[in-house]
Amino acid sequence: MTAIRDSLARYVAVRRALGAKFYEPALALGHFVDLLEHEGAEFITTDLALRWATTPVLVERATWGRRLSQVRGFAKWMNAIDSRNEIPPAGLLSARRRRNPPHIYTEQEITLLMTHAARLRSRTGLRALAYTTLIGLLAATGLRPGEALSLDRCDVDLVNGILSVRESKFGKSRFVPVEESTREALERYAQSRDQLCPLRVSEAFLVGERGIRLNASAVRNMFVRMSRAVGLRPATKDGRAGYGPRLQDFRHSFATGRLVAWYRAGLDVSRELPKLAAYLGHVNVGLTYWYIEAVPELLELAAGYLSRNCPGEWP
Q: Taking every annotated instance into account, which residue ranges of this chain make up the domain Tyr recombinase (predicted)?
């Protein structure tokens, strides 16, 4: 182990001791150290940090900024040990993410994805089963993808139809009740999973080919390929999959679907929004209001509702 890799191991250990999960940054910084070792660099330099941060193509600039920010944190640690390690200046790459309008999946698109997932090549049958269930679960509940992948068996109450989401974003936990049809689908998945993989090697609810928890990065890559296969993500000139819908957009689709239904039913959405915010695990209702601005149909429905019910307050 090189000195800089040893320092990375200590840095990661300290961050986790302070309460951070630090899984993705640790993995990313490991790849950065790979570059340093390949270049024979004994110290972090701004040039190498920039080169590594901007290596991925077909990503938002904010992704480059986030990668450089991860290096900057490690570089500060290394600089305190040896001042020859350079700290990349702040502002070289903006890590601020502009929130793009969500893709709202149609029922037909969800069906296409689930049908394709059911046909995925699988030695044991677990891959097709898990991806079909994951897509259905995200569409039916609006869970964050990471929340769904983090579910353990004990978190899924197959009798009462309640999911326990533990220490998710912002450290919040919550109970998520599901429809009866979703409960039945999860029960069928659990029975099939246990038949295909009778030897329990993981407490994860959703497992892949080897019976272990699905890896978030692998799931995202597989979903890109699935989206391209069903025509939701175009191919670029170099043959790679271009931009398109994301797993996170199932959450957006769930939220906007509820809002559209409430507006069409003539409900007072301002009274209903706090319920949706709590169900989704938003820290405040303002985050849920964003969907009204982001989806044109919701803006139109909101305008119609205001004109009918608040004529004196709507021009």
A: 99-304
Same domain, 301 and 188: no
φ and ψ at 149, to 5 degrees? -70, -25
* Any domain includes 242: no
pLDDT digits (tens, 9 = 90+) for 104-141: 898 999 999 999 999 999 889 999 999 999 999 999 99
Kind plus residue range of the DSSP H or E element containing 165: strand 162-165
Same domain, 120 and 206: yes
Give the C-alpha distances (Å, rounded to integers) separating 205 from 156, 158, 167, 219, 280. Answer: 8, 11, 17, 15, 20
Inside any domain, residue 137: yes
Does residue 275 share a domain with residue 210?
no
Domain of 122 in residue numbering reads as 107-229
Residue with tokens 């929004």, as numbered in its chain: 273
Q: Is residue 237 part of a domain?
A: no
The 10s digit of each residue's pLDDT in 233-271 is: 876 655 555 578 889 999 988 988 888 888 788 887 778
Question: Using 50, 70 and 90 to split pLDDT, how confident is the model at 61?
Answer: confident
H-state helical runs in the chain: 3-17, 23-38, 46-53, 61-81, 107-118, 126-141, 145-150, 180-196, 216-229, 248-264, 269-280, 285-294, 296-309
Whether residue 93 contacts residue 53, with contact meaning beta carbons closer than 8 Å, is answered with: yes
